Amino acid sequence: SFTGGKAISEAKAASSQACQELCEKDAKCRFFTLASGKCSLFADDAALRPTKSDGAVSGNKRCILLEDICEESNIQYSSGDLDSPLTAKSSQECMALCYKDPQCRIWTYLVPEKQCLLKSITGFSNRAKATGQKKSGGRLGCARCTRAAIAFGGKELQTVSGLPHETVCQFACELNKKCKFFT
């Protein structure tokens, strides 16, 4: 959720989509947070800070889904192992195991062996076509959101070329402890 800023408006909303629609109808709104059925709209991000909050959903006025990495067939991540392989009945169970581990950012599931490999963010740099039946994906599953038509100012830390999509760019940013935003 977003905290630290002053809400310009608050209303009841049944879902995050309904809250986002309220934000879209308000000319001043740029961000929203839905918590316990209360939709808070924010105009400026200067004071806002992303904060983990169970049950809260936040987003931008206009949300664009990044290419999902719920599950990629025949893709593996060959480094960044956090532990020994875990047993999992399915790739969905492997993703759930990754979600429960705070260090896990990506996972690779070995289908015939029913083994789950949890990976740190450093594993993302070694993404490759898999040999054998393997599935891989991100800790958070599918829908991620990004801001369209916005370039963040500030000191450029690094330029990384040749990334296949925005989600990979996000992970590259997460690899750098100084990185707060990516364009």
TrEMBL record:
Residues covered by the Apple domain: 1-63, 70-142
Keyword Cell membrane set for record: no
A biological process from GO: proteolysis
SMART domains tied to this protein: APPLE
Signal peptide: none
Swiss-Prot/TrEMBL keywords: Disulfide bond, Repeat
Family annotation (InterPro entries): Apple, Pan_app
Gene Ontology CC: one annotated term: extracellular region
Pfam families given in the database record: PAN_1
Organism superkingdom: Eukaryota
Matches recorded under PROSITE patterns: PAN
Keyword check for Disulfide bond: yes
Annotated protein name in UniProt: Microneme protein 5
